[in-house]
Write a structure and sequence with these properties.
The chain is mainly alpha-helical. The protein is built from three helices and no strands. Helices cover 70% and strands 0% of the residues.
Amino acid sequence: MTTLEVTLELPDSLAKEAQQAGLLMPEELERLVREALRAKRVERLSKAREKLAAEPLPPMTAEEIQAEIDAYRAQVRCASGT
């Protein structure tokens, strides 16, 4: 677990409202950060899907697919030292 010490500057009214809503509690801040990260991942995925739809990759032959699989397996074996 990582402990972060952060100074957060908010307008007084927003800080008061967030405090009253319990949003400044560690578990709530964790939930908010997780939700924000999930939203960012979804956004990146959407952009990647849009790009792929605009510029589709050419289909691969069975031989090309097998070559990619073989290369990946060789890379994994090399990285694991076996």
